[in-house]
Structure formats: C-alpha cells, structure tokens
Amino acid sequence: MQAVERRRFLQFLAASPALASAGMTSVLAEETLEAHELAEHLIASPDDALDVFDFHTAAKRALPSSHYGYLATGTDGNETLAANREGFRNVYLRAMRMVDTREISLQTELLGHALESPVVLAPVGSQKAFHDDAELATAAAARARNHLQILSNVTSTSIEDVIATRGEPVWFQLYPTDQWPVARGMLQRAERAGARVVVLTVDLNAGSNRVMLGQYSRADSRDCMACHSGGFDQWINAKPMYAGAKLTEANLDTPGMTWAYLDRIRSATSMKIVVKGIVTAEDAAAAVDSGADAVYVSNHGGRAEASGWGAIESLPEVVAAIDGTVPVMVDSGFRRGTDIFKALALGADAVAVGRPYIWGLAAFGQAGVEKVLEMLDAELRMVMAQIGATTIEEIGSQHVGHRS
Ligand SMILES: Cc1cc2nc3c(=O)[nH]c(=O)nc-3n(C[C@H](O)[C@H](O)[C@H](O)COP(=O)(O)O)c2cc1C
Fold first, then answer.
1. Which residues, 6 or more positions from 132, have their beta carbon under 8 angstroms from its beta carbon?
2. Cβ distance 332 to 83 under 8 Å?
3. What is the dihedral of CA 234, 238, 243, 249, to 10 degrees?
4. What CA–CA distance (Å, rounded) separates 25 from 86?
5. What CA–CA distance (Å, rounded) separates 178 from 250?
6. How many domains, the chain?
7. How far apart are CA 281 and CA 72, in angstroms?
8. Is 300 assigned a catalytic role?
C-alpha cells in the first residue's frame, strides 16, 4: 500500500501544475555547476560565495535528492531550461563611456510600490521542502534587503504569517483551481491579509513533463510517505491556503481557463492583476485588452512547456506589444547582474528570480537568501557603472545589441 502511495505521489510531483518544478539532465543549463561541485569549492558560509552558482552547489549538497529534483527540474529534455541561459548570449552589452557614475541608484516603482531594487522574489511553492524556516526565512530576507516578495498559493506558510514577518504586504500568486469558490476564497483571504496585487499564473493549466524530477526522486531511497502520507489529497489540503478546500488532484488542472477568468478575479477582489507566464506578443496584447495591470514574461523557469525558447528571447516581442501601456516583469534563468541589466535594457520594469534565492535558502536559510539578493544587487550596480547608467530609468535599448 505504501509503495502504491509513494508511486502515486511521485507521479503527481512529476505532472502537477501546483508543483511547478525543475530538473536538468544538461548541466549546461546552470553553467558553472560542474566546476563548483568539486568538494574544495563548496562554500562554508554565504560570504564565501563568488556568484549565485556557489549556492546552487551548496543547495544540492544540503537537500535530499527528490527535493533537489523538485527544485532543479525542467521538462522533457530540459530544452527551455537550457534556452533560458543560452538566450543571454545573443544579447550583448554596449558600454557608454565618460558618464559620471559615482552615484548609482537601483530604486524604481512597480504598480504603486516603491522598490529599492528591480530584483523581485518570484513565487516558489512548498519552501519547507528546502528549509525548515521556509517562506518566513524568505520574508525576513526580503525585509532585511527590502525586496518585493511574491508568495505562492502553494506556500507552506500562511500569508498572514508571511506578511507579519515581511513587515509589509507581499504580492499573492494564484494557481486557479477548477473550483471557483476555492480560488475566490483564497483571493479574498489574501486581500484581507493586506495583499494588493494578485499574480495569476497561466502557464501550467494541464501539467508538465518533469522528467528530471522523476530521475532524482527515483534515486532517493528515503520513504517519502514518512512525510507525505495520505498522498496528494492530504498533501494539498494541508497547505495553509487550501485549508478546508477538500480538493482532489484533478481540481488543480484548469485547461478550460480563458481570458474571461480575469473578469472573475475582478468580481472577487479589488487587488491589481498581474498575468504571469506570457511569452508571446499575441497574449501580451490579450492580457492588456482583458484588463491586466501588468504582464509577467515567464516560462516558469523552464518548468512548463519544452518550447526551447528562452525568456530573454520572448521579452522583446512582449515589450513591443505592450508599448508602454502597463509594466512588464520577467523571470526564468536570471543569474547575474548582466542578465538583469539586459532585461531592463530590453524594456522590462522588474526582474524576478526563483531558483537562486531558493539555493540560498536551502544552503543557509535566511542568511543565504539575503546574500543572493545582495550579490545580484551588487552585480547590477557594477554593470550599470560599467555601461554608464546611473538609474534604472536611464537603462535603455542603446545599452544592448543582438547577435545575428
Ligand atoms: C521549486 C519551484 C517552485 C515554483 N513554484 C511556483 C509557484 O508556486 N507558482 C508560480 O507561479 N511559479 C512557481 N515557480 C516558478 C517561479 O515563479 C519562476 O517563474 C521561476 O522559478 C523563474 O525561473 P528561475 O528559477 O530560473 O529563476 C516555481 C519554481 C520553482 C523552481
């Protein structure tokens, strides 16, 4: 019986939209991992890190195999995961000299929020799988470094506790279910807790093929059922945001969702709506026509469809379609200050990261998340000084070129 439950749970992990995860047969997708995996390069403290990939190696060492697989997995042969990194190579930086860059500011604004940095914490579900302090450690780090945090609705910690720790409202990400009353209840609870923005994720409506997660799970000899007894139904209904929902696995898929869903959200809440998971000009235009307050370019960190198309490559057509009408956010594959700078130069207003801060969390808890954010900010400042832009607003299309 336990074996059947374990298999069902692993199958669910490999297919569920609620667990948007990553896996990687191609090490190339995360660059320097192989070199850093050498034991002598393992960092002992956050301050030893040279770049965020040092946290990847440390996280891989710290996590059980299946939990690492959940974090790392892409889909199919990890085509999109790899493209998210490779896409940056086709965009180069154009440095403008003789600019006074003694004062650099990362301050910016997004949907009425004043931000100290355009680097945002993307929604990542089930953070207890990576560290006991889970979303509270992330919130404490976001508070210490003053970054915007987006909370997944598959959070291991309630939105009320996360907001109390963050000290100000987080944005609330929603995976809809096919049970509207459940989604409505979550939206209203998030708004009551203080959230002013909902991020609707639209790129995982009917599962994804997380092969690498399956590979890492198979290699895990521990008894998953010791923690995940009761399989999917018990697991999802135990999540704080799903309390009382009584969902089954099937309820997490929403293949029938269309743009009319935004009207439904508006009927339930006055939170602003960001649509996450857009990769085409057509959908960007449709999102704006449907009343989205911002568009979020993302391929779920390569965990949705195996398009083989990087997020940085999707960004320009979305920016062109939006034409300044609403803010544009982007994530998927951002690991360095140069990556972030390139997106800002291509017209993004903010850039989110997923795995990098979770690597920090898994390896060192709150201190690791803080250090990842500190490094990304420091790298971005350095690029701005090198390229000759002193504010986020000054970064523009003149600062990048495209290899043909
Ligand atoms: C372990 C994991 C869990 C995730 N959970 C969610 C989630 O609950 N909701 C969501 O919209 N996106 C989720 N994502 C996707 C992230 O929000 C983000 O799009 C992605 O991580 C960005 O790519 P990056 O990891 O390369 O930075 C998850 C990603 C990972 C790695």
1. none
2. no
3. -40
4. 15
5. 8
6. 1
7. 28
8. yes
CB 151 near ligand 1, within 6 Å: no
Pairing type for strands 197-201 and 272-278 reads parallel
d(CA 379, CA 207): 35
Residue 220 is which amino acid?
D
Confidence bin at 210 (pLDDT 50/70/90): very high
Cβ of 69 closer than 6 Å to ligand 1, yes or no, is no
Using DSSP's 3-state secondary structure scheme, residue 157 falls into coil
For 70-105, the pLDDT digits (tens) are 999 999 999 999 999 999 999 999 999 999 999 999
Which tokens hold the place of 322?
Answer: 């939006």
* C-alpha–C-alpha distance, residues 167 and 140, integer Å: 9
Q: Distance between CA 60 and CA 45 in Å, rounded?
A: 15
Neighbours of 68 (CB within 10 A): 26
Per DSSP, the three-state class of 231 is helix
**Neighbour-count burial of 116, counting CB atoms closer than 10 A to its CB (0-12 exposed, 13-18 middle, 19+ buried):** middle
Closest CA to 276 of 122, 125, 88: 122
For residue 337 and ligand 1, the question of a CB distance below 6 A is answered with: no
User: Residue 263: what pLDDT?
Assistant: 98
Q: For atom 13 of ligand 1, which residue has the closest CA? A: 124
Assess contact for 315 and 279: CB atoms under 8 A: no
pLDDT at 223 over 80: yes
Q: What residues contact residue 220 under an 8 Å CB cut-off, 6+ apart?
A: 64, 65, 66, 69
- The best mutation among 303, 305, 372 to test binding of ligand 1, ranked by most ligand atoms within 8 Å of the C-beta, falls on 303
CATH number at residue 117: 3.20.20.70
On whether the CB atoms of residues 160 and 154 are closer than 8 A, the answer is no
Q: Which domain holds residue 176?
A: 2-402
